[in-house]
Design a protein that fits this description.
Blueprint lengths: L2 H16 L3 H51 L41 H10 L37 E4 L20 E5 L19 H4 L12 E5 L4 E4 L3 E6 L2 E4 L37 E2 L5
């Protein structure tokens, strides 16, 4: 064999050795798949952790606004007109956004409006509108040109949180902070309602985490919800059964415990699945009923 042939043969052998075999390519693909399966969930967890932290910051800012409001209003939580003679319980939402004042005669804000009650913090310049948008949602800050001259959120896409309904005829029900129990839920990530796969009144308090997820807020992919309590602290809860009570036996913060007020002297149905409807309200003094829902 000529020297030229030997050189050509050696070049071909080197070219073959410098490439990847099929087995080596498969190993490389497997390694990449494993790395992606590790890194992507880690990045998603990190992103969700950041969202929860920012959501917690929102609720703390709202708590500061609530504290300022209650101090200036006899310890009363913000509430618009309540007409027990016409509707002793029940709520409405998002009415009369463009009205100049929710308390004047002729205002388009209807009585028992839970979102207009919350807007009083914006109207008073106590909380910026952006604080009512959870970073885990597609909601956007309300584009109100003059928030202090408005009376309500202009729609559900600008509010990511639910506020306790303060419209109840239940004996002993109060909305003054000095009379509320420390573990009374005042505000939380928005009530998931009953739309789609959600069923806020479905699972019992002792159901499995998988079942309870159906009743958790969609703000954080049903892993749980940030909750602002009457004593001022904020906590992420993996279950909606996190209101007034003891141990695991606690109020479902997203439902009314009963369709009618619990008679005075009757033990309240703590940890009852509860009910969700617009024409009912908190059924007893420790009954948090956070609304509106994300179905509205």
């Amino acid at each position: 064999m000529s020297a030229r042939s030997d050189v050509s043969s050696n070049c071909r052998h080197r070219a073959a050795r410098s490439g990847f075999s099929l087995v080596e390519l498969l190993v490389l693909v497997v390694i990449l798949v494993v790395l992606v399966s590790i890194l992507v969930p880690a990045l998603m967890r990190s992103r969700e952790t950041d969202r929860r932290v920012r959501c917690t910051d929102n609720l703390r800012a709202i708590q500061q606004g609530l504290e300022l409001y209650t101090k200036a209003n006899g310890n009363n939580l913000p509430r618009v007109v309540y007409e027990p003679s016409r509707a002793a319980t029940g709520y409405v939402a998002y009415t009369g956004a463009e009205s100049a004042d929710p308390f004047t005669r002729g205002s388009n804000v209807r009585a028992n409006d839970v979102t207009a009650s919350l807007w009083l913090l914006v109207r008073g310049g106590l909380v910026p509108v952006g604080r009512f948008v959870c970073p885990g949602t597609d909601a956007r800050s309300d584009p109100a040109a003059s928030p202090t001259g408005r009376s309500n959120f202009s729609g559900p896409s600008h509010l990511s949180y639910s506020y306790t309904s303060l419209f109840s005829a239940a004996p002993g029900f109060r909305f003054t902070t000095d009379l509320l129990k420390a573990d009374f839920a005042v505000l939380a990530d928005k009530n998931p309602g009953k739309g789609g796969g959600d069923d806020v009144a479905g699972p019992a308090y002792d159901a499995s985490p998988f079942q309870l997820a159906r009743a958790n807020s969609n703000n954080h992919d049903q892993a749980g919800q940030n909750v602002l309590y009457a004593d001022g602290h904020v906590q992420f809860q993996p279950t909606p059964y996190c209101g007034v009570g003891e141990g695991a036996v606690r109020d479902n913060i997203y439902t009314a415990a009963s369709t009618t007020p619990v008679p005075e002297g009757t033990p309240p149905p703590v940890a009852a699945n509860g009910f969700l409807a617009r024409d009912i309200g908190p059924a007893w003094a420790g009954d948090s009923f956070l609304v509106p829902t994300d179905d509205e």
